[in-house]
Amino acid sequence: MERSPSKKTVLSNCPVSPNREKEIFHVVHKVPSGDGPYVRAKHAQLVEKDPEGAIVWFWKAINAGDRVDSALKDMAVVMKQLDRTEEAIEAIKSFRGLCSKNAQESLDNVLIDLYKKCGRVDEQIELLRQKLRMIYQGQAFNGKPTKTARSHGRKFQVSIKQETSRILGNLGWAYMQKTNYMAAEVVYKKAQMIDPDANKACNLGLCLIKQARYDDARSVLEDVLTGRVPGSDDIRARNRAEELLLDLESRQPPPGLSNLVGLHLDDEFVDGLEQIGAQWAPIRPRRLPIFEQISNFKDQLAC
Q1: For 157, phi and psi rounded to 5 degrees?
Q2: Residue 154 forms beta bridges with which residues?
Q3: What is the Cα–Cα distance from 201 to 207, expressed in whole angstroms?
Q4: Where are any strands of DSSP class E within the chain?
């Protein structure tokens, strides 16, 4: 008895219309539909793998007013990949005024990455501090409690709490590049109070090692290895904690610290940090111990 073709076989033999083929192409290559300069830029970037050609078309899209928000951001990302970082920074600074209010936050995030890549740490720190001020003034996320973020093609929701901790972590790392380990310690501790994770714990441990506070550093790193910090099951975080502990054990405590680097945290910024974390702290004293520590040092250290 002859078997009738399955539904799947019948569907596979059906001709696909040209419009349907275009739809499938756009989905597979993640290229928007249309024929404007922005679409051509994305086609050059994602399909033809021609980043230089993509930049030319992104410029044309910006000049033509075609999806300027996305064109400027995407062009800066491509420029970063080509090590044209300084050019990307100048492009964002020059043309972000053409972009909508909703695009400014994502442009700031791209700008921070660009500053980090080319070693412009002071500008990175200032922009991170500016983003924190926006949070404690209620201006972040356009006043909403969450925002939609995208990573590796997937969308997910980010809360103000998570964003605050992320920015503090980036600020702590920037302070470390300036060898301002005391300021880095302050913001890492605040980040851990808000939304702790193993990666920031390792960075905090490194800050403490740099200040020769070996017992404190050991306690923080052992919390990672014993699983008392969220994310401790990440093998990379555990390996890093182990490496830092080995480094710590190889060091001899010096007779005393000298040439302490100033915190360089003004009173307004310290008060802002206190405000943005107060609602998430398990206990809410009038002034957190971490900031009492800052106050004690402020008169002694150069800012």
Answers
A1: -95, 135
A2: 151
A3: 10
A4: 146-151, 154-159
Domain that holds residue 67: 25-119
Residue 149, beta-bridge partner list:
156
Is 139 a member of any domain?
no
What is the pTM assigned to this prediction? 0.72
Pairing of strands 154-159, 146-151: antiparallel
CATH code for the domain of 182: 1.25.40.10
Q: In this structure, what token pair is assigned to residue 17?
A: 């219309």
In a domain, 128, yes or no: no
Amino acid in position 31:
V
Amino acid 22 reads K
Q: What is the pLDDT of residues 190-243, one digit of tens each?
A: 999 999 999 999 999 999 999 999 999 999 999 999 999 999 999 999 999 999
Tokens of 296: 């004690």
State yes or no: pLDDT of 20 exceeds 80.
no
Distance between CA atoms of 193 and 281, rounded to whole angstroms? 6
Asked whether 204 and 240 are in contact (CB, 8 A), the reply is no
**Per the structure, how many domains does the chain have?**
2
Radius of gyration (Cα) for the chain, nearest Å?
A: 25
